[in-house]
Amino acid sequence: MAIAKMNKVYLIGHQDEKDNTLSILQQVGMMEIGDIQAKEASKEAWAELVEGDHEQESLQGLEARLTEVRFAMDFLNRYYPVKKSMLEALGGDRKAVTTSEFVANAAEWNRVASDIYRELRKTDEKLMSLRNEETRLQNLKTLVLPWEQLAVPLEEIYSTASVCIELGTLPAAELAALRERLLAAAKESYLAEVHVDRNEVYVFLAYPASLAEEVREILKQVGFNKQVFPALAGTPVEILARVGQELVMIAEQRKEILADTEKQVEFRDILSYYYDYLVMERDKKQVVTNLARTNNAFIMEGWIREKDLPELEKKLSAGCDTVVAVAREPEPGEHFPVSLENTRLVAPFEFITTLYGVPHPHGVDPTLALTPFFVMFFGLCMSDAGYGVVIAALAALALWKLKMSKMARRVFWILLAGGISTIIFGALIGGWFGGLIPLEPLFFNALLDPMRMLVYALAIGVFQIFVGMGIQFYHNIRAGKILDAISDQLFWGLFIIGLIMFAFPELKVVATNLSLASAAGLVLTQGRAQTGIFRKFLSGLFSLYNVTGFLGDILSYSRLLALGLASSVIAMAVNMLAFMLGGTIIGSVLMVIMLIGGHTFNIVINILGSYVHSSRLQYLEFFNRFFVSGGRPFKPFKLNTNYVEVTADWPGVPLQKAAQYKL
Amino acid sequence: MEVGLGLAILGAAVATLLAGIGSAIGIGIAGQTAAGVISEDPDKFGLTIVLTALPGTQGIYGLIMGFLILFRTGLLGGELVALTIPQGLALLFAALPIGFVGWLSAIYQGKAVAAGIQLIAKRPEEFGKAMIYGVMVETYAVFALLMSIMIFMFLPI
Fold first, then answer.
1. % residues pLDDT > 70 (chain A)
2. Which residues in chain B touch residue A576, judged by CB atoms under 8 angstroms apart?
3. Which of B127, B142, B153 sits opposite A563 (nearest CB)?
4. Which DSSP string do the residues of B84-100 spell out, in sequence order?
């Protein structure tokens, strides 16, 4: 239930074993490798003995290889898509391999992947040229289509010595004007409409060559656009038929090509395994940039959880001959990466903590403290035992049956806990499916007595805020800040308790004395950061105004009542509407559909509401009292696979000898 | 039909329609931003949908108040209740907090979550913070619903 103790660790070894060491570190995934050349380290005396390390060339080679494999995978996914179900998207079934299998197969995968890449590249080029050809034909089709009615082969439309023959378009509005003026200027000319569309008219025009100049002048004025079809033979109808045939052929060719290539789909898995393998190798080369070297030695630094250190040392000494690990505790004030450690029941709720932020390395991990509150609030907001049964059952089923990522697993754990809590609180103060199962609440019915529920909700709020202050009190005491603990937590706590006591008339005297005394304490201490008696006093006095903040925070817990009522009322409304449908056979069917659909909707929408509001009460009202964020999450150097699940069986097989990827 | 009953029904209508309009606008604002983010990175759908759905709750709160009033008047599932004009007015007033606060808070919440969606487009790890800004607006709709329900519950009808 805390922030894990971290150690800074330095690894020093022979260059020959560098890659080996990185492999081990990657397999065990325990150490975060920092940049040893960063400013902090360069102050050390040994800093000038070493220089930065990198392996640019092999890194670039691997990157290029990754691009190829990515291309092949994308190609297959584009043309032969696999439908992924919602369940698979949760993190899915990943092939389990051991490290040595992984590495031993790499050479074979490499060969397969290279073949597929070459093949697919060729296919891609073929498809590309087909696509270009298709575009060209489509354009031609659009060009020729308006002339479909013209019964003359296009190659026969040319001017002779005495007659000019032209095809062209002009704005439809100008056609009458053109006819008229042609009649006046060149009586012998011939004008035929071939096709009219929305704006343009397509015409065939013949006129005597002797009058060419006059006619061209007219054509210019009416906006005539001459159209020529070089290199096209046959009538437009013939041309269109030919184009149509060619398009069909292209479609067939494409189908053939794709059918030919489809056999590559069976290698999709291998491609994805190989992709993961390449990512693993790439990551190793990338992290080398963080290392420093001399001619024969390497040195790296990083952070590791203190409890993992013996295990790492054991693995290193088993896999390498020359590597030495030197570890030390963080220096006072030194910022180390934060890794949260909680028991298995509580660990899923780290999800909620980290969504807000990672705690400061010298702060407190709030996960354990927020877990019971979050679970309780979730139950109070859902407040229907029937819904609780549904949520808990579905979450349990998902956890039991489905393979999913760690993150998804955590979310379902939280839902399971929330569901169970909903059953408890629903049975105590709510109903079962909005009264569909007529069971009386065991404690009292919040819907009928909301005032009572409101008091409980606010009381829970006061309790949580006090827990928050208690945590900070304890933390301050442990850090030796006794004055802070007394003035910021103890006085405030007593002050609030005093104010609450006013609600009970028999405690009036105690309440007055307690609140006045603690208020005096606050006025005297809250201004201690200021200079000068007057300022100290004023700022202390003003701090009493913060009581409105406490009040607002406590009132904020009234949402527990409101959301609980909201889900109950909707559930009741669903039942009522559904029963109004009942009576006939069709009505009864509709009623069942309405019940299922309505309650499902209500469950989904209330899970959302319960989750966000329960989180909010932690983040704002609770965390406010003690939580300091600003930590950097611990990111150990590890295997980063998307498609396979690697279990390390290292050391055992000489990894580097098996890994013979050719670049 | 009595005037009192008419006023009560007006209350049910006002609660549902004002809060519903607000939610529709709020989700609309959030949805546009979310669609823009998805065009760049479809994997963020799960994160954006939670934020986009947030301004939808006001419409539900309004609906809840509408249902409560309809139950009380007997219009839904029961005998029609005879309401005096003051009683009808009181039910109408009970609807106003969630109607008005729901309406405006949903719109502003829509803007807040739209900004939050842009935040997680760049930094998905800050999802929790993006959510808080939206939920802070929501608080006032919850309070308004609480007040509406309180007025409703303690009306001597």
1. 95
2. 71, 76-77
3. B142
4. -HHHHHHHHHHHHHHHH
Shortest Cα distance, chain A CAs vs residue B76, angstroms: 8
Copy the structure tokens of residue A189. 């000319």
CA gap A390, A432 in Å, rounded: 11
Prediction ipTM score = 0.81
**Tens digit of pLDDT for each residue in A506-563?**
888 888 888 888 888 888 888 787 788 888 888 888 888 888 888 888 988 988 998 9
Query: Burial of A388 by CB count in 10 Å (0-12 exposed, 13-18 middle, 19+ buried)?
Result: buried
Of B127, B136, B149, the CB nearest to A565: B149
Q: Rounded to an integer, what distance in angstroms lies between the CA atom of residue A357 and that of residue A349? A: 13
Question: Is B127's Cβ below 8 Å from some Cβ in A?
Answer: yes
Distance (Å) from the alpha carbon of B107 to chain A's nearest alpha carbon = 18
Contact A562 B149 (CB under 8 A): yes
| CB A181 within 8 Å of CB A134 | no
What SS3 class is residue A253? helix
Cα(A301)–Cα(A34) distance, integer angstroms: 6
* Inter-chain Cβ pairs, chain A and chain B, closer than 8 A: 86
CB within 8 Å of chain B, chain A residues 301-360: 352, 354-357
Q: Do A615 and B131 touch (CB under 8 A)?
A: yes
Which member of A562, A569, A616 has the closest CB to residue B132?
Answer: A616
Report yes or no: B68 at the A interface, CB cutoff 8 Å.
Answer: yes
What the block records as the tokens of A502 is 């006013």
Residues forming beta bridges with residue A2, ordered by sequence position: A341
Task: State the virtual CA torsion across A317, A319, A324, A326 in degrees, nearest 10.
Answer: -70
For residue B99, give its domain range: 3-154
A442 inside 8 A of chain B by CB: no
Model pLDDT for residues A219-249, shown as the tens digit of each residue: 888 888 888 887 888 888 999 999 999 999 9
B139: DSSP letter: H
- Amino acid type, A40: E
Residue B101's CATH number:
1.20.120.610
- DSSP notation for A576-624: HHHHHH-SSHHHHHHHHHHHHHHHHHHHHHHHHHHHHHHHHIIIIIIGG
Mean pLDDT of A179-190: 85
Q: Which residues contact A663 (CB under 8 A, 6 or more apart)?
A: A58, A61, A62, A64, A65
Q: Are residues A566 and B54, on separate chains, in Cβ contact within 8 Å? A: no
Residues 6+ apart with CB under 8 A from B146: A558, A559, A561, A562
Each residue of A351-397: pLDDT tens digit? 999 888 889 998 889 999 999 999 999 999 999 999 999 999 999 99
A579/B50 Cβ within 8 A: no
Tell if the CB–CB gap between A613 and B53 is shorter than 8 Å. no
C-beta atoms of B56 and A450 within 8 A:
no
Q: What does the alpha-carbon distance between residue A347 and residue A367 come to, in Å, rounded to a whole number?
A: 8
**Domain count of the fold of chain B:** 1
Distance from CA of A526 to the nearest CA of B (A): 28
Q: B134: which chain A residues are within 8 Å (Cβ-Cβ)? A: 612
DSSP one-letter code for A147: G
Question: What is the per-residue pLDDT for A657?
Answer: 42
Task: Annotate A473-532 with DSSP letters as a single string.
Answer: HHHHHHTT-HHHIIIIIIHHHHHHHHHHHTTSGGGHHHHHHHHHHHHHHHHHHTTTTSSS
pLDDT single digits (tens) A15-60: 888 888 888 888 888 899 988 877 555 566 677 777 778 788 888 9
Cis geometry, peptide bond prior to residue A366 (ω within 30 degrees of 0): no
Cβ contacts of A580 on chain B, cutoff 8 Å: 76-77
Which domains are seen in chain A, by residue range?
1-132+265-339+635-663 (no CATH), 158-228 (3.30.70.2750), 347-625 (no CATH)
